[in-house]
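Re-run with default settings, no changes from the original entry. Doing this only to confirm the output is reproducible before filing.
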Amino acid sequence: MKTVPCPVCQRPAVWDERQNPYRPFCSEHCKNKDLGKWANEEYSVPAVDETPGKDDKE
């Protein structure tokens, strides 16, 4: 049985979706805790400025 570390608590989480519907998390609690962090903007995805500038070569 393959396991991965839970991204929230680092405990082993079963990767098989039939045995663990919360994967990659180990439990519903960790899944909800992670969702709450996204909702509270504790996580973010870095923005990339794709506006062409004078330093860009075409």
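The longest strand covers residues 3-5. The radius of gyration is 18 Å.
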